[in-house]
Amino acid sequence: MRSQPPRLLAAALVAALAATTFAASGTASAAEYERVLNGKFDSGSADPWWSSAGVTNRVTGGELCAAVTGGTTNPWDALVGQNGVPFESGQSYTFSFDAHATTAQTIAAAAGEAVSPYRGIARQEFALTTAKQRYTFTFTSTLDFPDAGNGQVAFQLGGQAADNTICVDNVSVIGGVKPPGGVVPNPTKKVQVDLVGYVPGLPKRATLVSTATTPQTWTLKNSAGAAVATGQSTPKGADATSGDSVHLIDFSSFDTAGTGYTLSVGTDSSFPFDISADAIKRLRYDSLAFFYHQRSGTPIEAQYVGDQYARPAGHINVAPNQGDNNVPCRADLNCGYTLDVRGGWYDAGDHGKYVVNGGIATWQLLNAYERASRVGDASAYRDGTLAIPEKSNGVPDILDEARWEVDFLLKMQAPDGMAHHKMHDAAWTALPTRPELDDQPRRLSATSTAATLNLAAVAAQAARLWRGVDATYSAKLLAAARKAYTAAKANPAKLADPADNVGGGAYDDKTVTDEFYWAAAELYATTGEAAYRTDVTGSSHYKAASLTRAGFFWGGTAPLGDITLALAPNGLPAADITAIKSAFASVADQHLTAMAGMGYATPYDNSVDGYVWGSNSGVLNNATVLALAHDFTGAEKYRDGVFEALHYLLGRNPLSTSYVAGYGDQAVQNIHHRFWARQNDPALPIAPPGSLSGGPNSALQDPVVQRLLVGCPQQKCWVDDIGAYSVNEVAINWNSALAWVAGWAAEKSGAPVSKPDCEVGYSASKWDGGQSAHVKLTNTGTTPWTAWKLAFAFPGTQKITTGWSANWNQTGRDVTATNMSWNGRVEPGKSVYIGFNASGGGSDPTAFTVNGKACRTG
Ligand code: 9MR
């Protein structure tokens, strides 16, 4: 964001303010809206605070320090201020700040009009000392500057003979009743459900907002309003992440498919929802359709998207576009060439195209396909499943869509093999700006190690998938991947510039060991070559070493390498693959444990940074970890965790809002996007169904949320406003996460869900060089067992020394245990307890079968 110039305000305005008296009264209104931006200076920037002549602003130690040149006459001869501060006539405001001065001095804090006739609202003087103190005064506005109009706050620092430095921090002006920007936040319900639906056969949970300490009676009603089920809620108390006091409602026992159900407690009723798998099956494709909409360099045709979403090709050198076919580097780079980088997907609501983010987005689409081919149902992605121009070319449509971006990534490769980090507009364009009307020059940023490794990883992955589809293309991809990897090894620390964020995002990344691991893993899985293998096994990330509840994202990609190694056949030791799979199960377990304690269950770790920019994609990437844990172990609990994540995104959240456009009665509408910008221009559409909003971001990183949401509980730091880009944008890497998970969930919603008829509980106490394990087998089926045989594999070096209550057998890592004569019969619902001592070490096994059938892990 840029500083606004002080305008003329300075002397004239504040002279007027000096003479103004004000009514000090009352407290801030109930809404408690913060009216100033960046009052804490935590980001290190002073924007949008300006200073007048003779004053230099510097943010140091988290404060704004103004160096004031002495020799001025009046207090208003030296100013620090902020414009565009909304004030409403008759409303009360509390102006407070911390301040200290190098030399004690009296300053004034003032509110008023930023333009002629510079009317004043309020002014108060404060005697600053060298010690930091907090100062506060309250006033009622006599003027009306709605929204971000001509209101202003300023500190008057002049009237001193000598130079002085004055520092302020935690500047706040709270009050008024109108939400900033005129946005009215979505109304919330007391009974929070997935607004879209619950899949038959799977758990169905809701959240009740209530401070009651006793269980409350809930009633499930069908579309005719008739009660079909009832039960009691479980009080859970205060939930800090949402700011709500909550109860859990579990209505899983009701399983009749239908539409228009509501859940109520007393007179409070939820939004309507379905019990059906239909919506998730639609979302599998709508989430992928997003990518066709985002294509650059080709017309988006009505025959695929309907009239309202059709638009001419963007950035193909038709005026006023300056085109992407001949793009030079930024002036400071002197790279000496231009590139034809037409095509690809626009990253988000802007028209930038970024290799480092295009990489993970493309990888996720390709991985959804590769995973389905290996352990799921790839026919869901066959040719003809998407409404795209390539829908009848004989190639799975998800591969066609991904290829649109893969081709762009290849074009971003410089002659030396390195890839340019990104290309985008030279300056930010206004909202709305249709792609074909963007008149900004386009520029390539420098090449970077991270972008080069993104290209290497995705091109290697794609080479593997196109092998049987288009051998020539596959060979071209592999050659590009090899060249990129070699170039990255020769330039291992060429980092993107964090300050390169004008006209496009920086996507800077200080650590690239994860990208090295990911690229090496893809190249090894594709080629089997020893050199890549050495880089994989020698990496500090090997065997999911860096997989945690923080998951993965565009800047942390090591787990993508793990996923590929676990899914694509390769020559690594079976034990290492097992270790990777175990790591996924163990992190998935951590998610489930954390989710059990949440008011709104979400696989998301907010313990370090709160809810961050794009938190919804974090939820989905962690849902991917849960989904893979299910793929690797068969345990139902992980599958149920994936659906819990979807329920959160689709409405079971403290804002009663579905973050997926077109899904649910209160779904996101006003996405930050330069074409889907109906909030700014009624002739334009809203985001198409299946587009995912970035989601709550407790760091409040745009002007709308900075005014509207100060003090928000983390899961409530979101608003459906086009200007709120730090919470309500779309992005290719977020929709790719949604597409992966929606595809997986749709696959699991297909056939009637079969319940395994065994459950295994496994716990081991460990010491140096040994362990003792207790295993509980439960017959969860409907017929008695007359004999049983348990089988599993050790991930580590465990070697059974003695066993009890079963005949234990071990060959290599494979273990079997068969019943003794006295415990072979196990009635339904009953358990048998067995165990063993082992030498060696390693993590617990995660996948078990009894009598050849996979068991649930308990
Ligand atoms: O997704 C990105 C997020 O992780 C960063 O915190 C944020 C600020 O740098 O940028 C996000 O990416 C944006 C990119 O920079 C520009 N296009 C829109 C992206 C989504 O908001």
Task: Identify the notable features of this structure and list them briefly.
Glycosyltransferase, Jelly Rolls, binds ligand 9MR, 858 residues, single chain, 22% strand, 16 helices, alpha+beta, globular, disordered N terminus, 5-stranded antiparallel beta sheet
Per the CATH scheme, the topology name of the largest domain is: Glycosyltransferase
Approximately what portion of the residues adopt beta-strand conformation? Answer: 15-25%
Low-confidence stretches: 1-30
Compute the number of strand runs. 37
Class inferred from helices and paired strands? alpha+beta
Major pleated sheet:
6 strands, mixed
Which ions, cofactors or small ligands are bound in this entry?
ligand 9MR
* Highest CATH level, the class of the largest domain: Mainly Alpha
What's the N-to-C terminus distance? 51 Å
Mean pLDDT: 92
Radius of gyration over C-alpha positions, nearest whole angstrom = 30 Å
Q: How would you sum up the global shape?
A: globular
Structurally, the number of domains stands at: 4
Count of separate DSSP helical elements: 16
The CATH architecture name of the largest domain reads Alpha/alpha barrel
- Work out the helicity level: 25-40%
Account of the protein in words:
With 858 residues, the protein is α+β, with helices and mostly antiparallel strands. The chain folds into four domains: 11-175, Galactose-binding domain-like (Jelly Rolls, Sandwich), CATH 2.60.120; 182-276 and 573-754, Glycosyltransferase (Alpha/alpha barrel); 294-551, Glycosyltransferase (Alpha/alpha barrel), CATH 1.50.10.10; 758-857, Immunoglobulin-like, CATH 2.60.40.290. Helices cover 26% and strands 22% of the residues. The chain contains 16 helices and 37 strands. Strands 12, 14, 15, 18, 19 and 20 form a six-stranded mixed beta sheet that branches. Strands 1-4-9-6-7 form a five-stranded antiparallel beta sheet. Strand 16 and strand 17 (244-250) form a beta hairpin. The two termini are 51 Å apart. The structure holds ligand 9MR. The site of ligand 9MR has 12 residues, from loops.
